[in-house]
Amino acid sequence: MYNIIKKKRDGGELSTEEINYFVENYTKGKIPDYQISALFMAIYFNHMNKRETLDLTRAMVNSGDKVDLSSIKGIKVDKHSTGGVGDTTTLILGPMVAACGVPFAKMSGRGLGHTGGTLDKLESIKDFKVELSIEEFIRNVNNINISICSQTANIAPADKKFYALRDVTATVEDISLIASSIMSKKLAIGSDAIILDVKVGSGAFMKNLDDAINLGKEMVDIGIGYGRETIALITNMDEPLGNAIGNALEVKEAIDVLRGNGPKDLYELCIQLGIRLLLLSKRAKTEEEAKILLEETIRSKTAYNKFVELVKYQYGDIDYVKNPELLPKSDFVIEVKSEKDGYVKALNAEEIGKCALILGAGRETMESKIDFSVGIVLNKKVDDKVNVGDVLAYIHANDINKAKEVEAKIKEIYIIGEKNKENKKLIY
Length: 428
Ligand code: URA
Ligand code: CA
Known about the structure:
This is Pyrimidine-nucleoside phosphorylase. The chain has helices at residues 2-9, 16-27, 33-46, 50-62, 89-99, 118-122, 134-144, 157-168, 175-187, 209-226, 247-258, 264-280, 287-299, 302-313, 319-322, 349-359, 400-413; strands spanning 77-81, 104-108, 146-150, 193-200, 229-236, 244-245, 332-337, 342-347, 375-378, 385-386, 391-397, 414-417.
């Protein structure tokens, strides 16, 4: 291990064997944290090339279980977002592509966050079951082209240990380490094609465009190097996506989009991600053809019907989809009103996310219990015109003190002034 650290410290290139050695043995507990910390700091300063990064990813995939999806017919697709605020995309994109006949096989992990993840959101539908056996997951995808379930397998355990160590040694922010960490968890699950939604902006892991583009390219190179069709889109996370931030609120928002009534940005992002998935899966030959197919799934309600089917196959109560008023509701809703005239210039997504967390919509620790009913619904977004007294946002809460605290914060988060010179962009 000493020689591996020294080689990287002096700017050398690690061999496949050296990379396999430290990943395998650290996972087994045979190498102390301080040696891996030193190695990561050397990597941080001297970087890894494409070959080293791919080898590192492969070694991390091999550190745990792989989910074999080869018994699913057709070209199976998967989607991953690098994380944002109020991102309900999977609940819409999945049914849309499945309604086009493309198998959408998505396994999610649970994590910490401002709101719950996809699995938590789905659990706000009564009796919805996210813990499926691999056999049932595969059977559902073969039967109805879609399943969304939790990872029961032991996926990339090396990454769990590495990430925890990087977190406390100031070595998270290296492109090779980030890209291999994210991709190892994706590649362990055997889909044929992957769309990566790389978020950039105040509510994203990557705060500026150059970093996001670098991360996207690195992840695509890993995916393709590993033998999977991979595309990344760089998308805006300067403000939350859609209007709703919170679990049941986001499920309702997803149902709205599936019924053709949801927020435009969320719908547009799903169309753009969907276009790439239809191209990757060879369901469409051109972007135009893909777009028409996807739009038709909303117009004809086949995507909505697919969502109902997904809920039914995972034991959820479909009345909650047909009548979203049944979803968990907070005790009260308060309005946040504007004290200024002008235009919304900025609406920091991360700060809004923190407000949702205060209300109880997310997890601060893995033991936290999520309150499905609470959250925020934005009534004004960036570039919208506002007048004094207009409602900026609605706070759905069960605790009046927390609601008051969040109200004060939201008033500060909305930056209102002159109209921005350039209109915001959704896809970079
Ligand atoms: N997310 C991950 O899963 N890994 C990283 O290294 C950074 C963000
Ligand atoms: Ca949303």
